[in-house]
Amino acid sequence: MGLGDIVMPGILVAATYHYAIINELPRLPVALGVIIGTLAGFIVLMTFVTKGKPQAGLPCLCGGAILGYIIS
Asked: Which InterPro entries does its entry note (predicted)?
């Protein structure tokens, strides 16, 4: 994993925490939902890697972060 694989989901977490107050959403649960979604994407990514099928990390991580945002 490269630096961008860490930074992009982190930016999504920071943006949801910052802009949730504008949309009158609870800040911490929404940000935690994005973090949990990112961790779920990381688990999916590591499942592919352990099977010997390396994948790009960013789609799994950001996809999980977006799903975490939608669910929360």
From this structure: SPP
User: What is the DSSP code (8-state) at residue 54?
Assistant: -
Is the Cβ–Cβ distance between 23 and 66 less than 8 Å?
no
User: In the structure, what pLDDT confidence band is assigned to residue 5 with cuts at 50, 70 and 90?
Assistant: confident
Domains of the chain by residue range: 3-71
Kindly state the tokens that stand for 38.
């990112």
Residue written as token pair 């789609």 = 59
Q: Flag whether pLDDT at 25 surpasses 80.
A: no
Residue tagged 């999980």 (tokens): 64
pLDDT tens string 42-52: 999 999 999 99
Distance CA(63)–CA(72), nearest Å, equals 14
- Amino acid 64 reads G
